[in-house]
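Long-time lurker, first post. I've been practising inverse folding by hand and with some scripts of my own, and I keep getting stuck on stretches where the structure tokens seem ambiguous. Below is the full token string for one chain I'm working on. Before anyone asks, I'm not after the true native sequence, just a reasonable design that respects the backbone. If someone could post their per-position residues I'd love to compare against what I wrote down in my notebook.
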């Protein structure tokens, strides 16, 4: 099974992915946790953040997930996944694909101050920021949606419900 946690930078997808990963490991399920930024460094940081580079990074991640999935390893992946085309590829090419959309409004991410990425963009210091000058295709058919607009405690509780649902689906 490949579990694809998607959303804007700072939305909470890494938090949810870590919760899922820990629960799968505690249940002795062969599982790997992948993060989009980690994949960049594994491949030598040879890509920038342009739309084309982001799509190439997503392609690498998809292919790595496909390999691990083919070998019976569950993959929990935290990735922006900006393209619905990429997500449709995942639905067709993995043995089992579950998509979790962490829906957090960019204004709330900025207000929480989790990422100075958006502030840097607003101050003209950087470009190629998803949600600003690069479009994020909001998913329309995710298996799970978490509206991360309340407290962190409620967010984590929502994540725990998803984990339990995923574990039931494995049995």
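-- Answer (accepted) --
I ran through it position by position. Result:
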């Amino acid at each position: 099974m490949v579990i694809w946690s998607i959303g804007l930078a700072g939305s909470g997808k890494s938090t949810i992915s870590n919760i899922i990963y820990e629960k799968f490991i505690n249940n002795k399920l062969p599982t790997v946790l992948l993060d989009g930024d980690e994949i960049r460094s594994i491949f030598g940081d040879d890509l920038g953040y342009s739309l084309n580079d982001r799509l190439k990074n997503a392609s690498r991640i998809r292919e790595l997930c496909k390999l691990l999935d083919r070998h019976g390893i569950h993959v929990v992946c935290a990735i922006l996944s900006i393209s619905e085309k990429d997500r449709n590829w995942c639905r067709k090419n993995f043995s089992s694909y579950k998509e979790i959309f962490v829906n957090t409004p960019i204004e709330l991410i900025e207000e929480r101050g989790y990422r100075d990425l958006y502030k840097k963009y607003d101050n003209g210091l950087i470009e190629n920021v998803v949600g600003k000058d690069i479009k994020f295709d909001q998913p329309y058919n995710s298996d799970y949606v978490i509206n991360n607009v309340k407290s962190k405690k409620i967010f984590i509780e929502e994540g725990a419900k998803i984990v339990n649902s995923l574990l039931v689906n494995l049995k």
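A couple of notes from the structure itself: The mean pLDDT is 92. The beta strands are 2-6, 31-35, 74-79, 97-103, 144-147. Happy to go over any region you disagree with.
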